[in-house]
Amino acid sequence: METRPSLLASTVIVFDTNVFISTFVFPGFSAKVHDFCAVNFQLFTSEWILNELDEKLGLPKFRCSIERRSAINEIIRIRHQVVFPDSELPTVCRDADDNHILQVAQFVDADFIITGDRDLLDLITFEKTQILSPREFYNRYIQQ
Predict the structure, then answer these.
(1) For a disulfide at 90, which of 50, 53, 102, 127, Cβ 3.0-4.6 Å?
(2) Coil, strand or helix at 14
(3) Is the pTM of this model over 0.90?
(4) Position 27 confidence tier, pLDDT thresholds 50, 70, 90
(5) Where are any strands of DSSP class E within 33-80?
(6) Model confidence pLDDT, tens digit, residues 97-108
(7) Who contacts 46 (Cβ-Cβ below 8 Å, separation ≥6)?
(8) Where are the domains positioned within the chain?
(9) How many angstroms separate the CA atoms of 48 and 52, rounded?
């Protein structure tokens, strides 16, 4: 029987905007991964990510009221440390906006980025940071 690698409580994780949307708008698998990580690891985000999330949640397809968007923002601020990266913005991702996710990961020396974004997933790693989908992270580190 294969033993799954365990992660320390000091593990640092950055979630991409699309995983936040899946977590809070379509609660299901991504929410389970996010909740597990919030209890067991150190989570980081940035004002840029929170602003992008608020902008996307404001789109008609998500039907998120201002009150709901504010509540989601508050939950994330409770679960994640908000940082203000002052390092140069990386330029390695096909989608320039995704470089902001990489910047946060670089700034906090993240172990993982959890994302559903193909542009980020195709990188596989960025410096020391592994880039995984919620499913990959679950299969490697959570599933018993």
Answers:
(1) 102
(2) strand
(3) yes
(4) confident
(5) 42-46
(6) 999 999 999 999
(7) 82, 83, 84, 85, 100, 103, 104
(8) 12-142
(9) 6
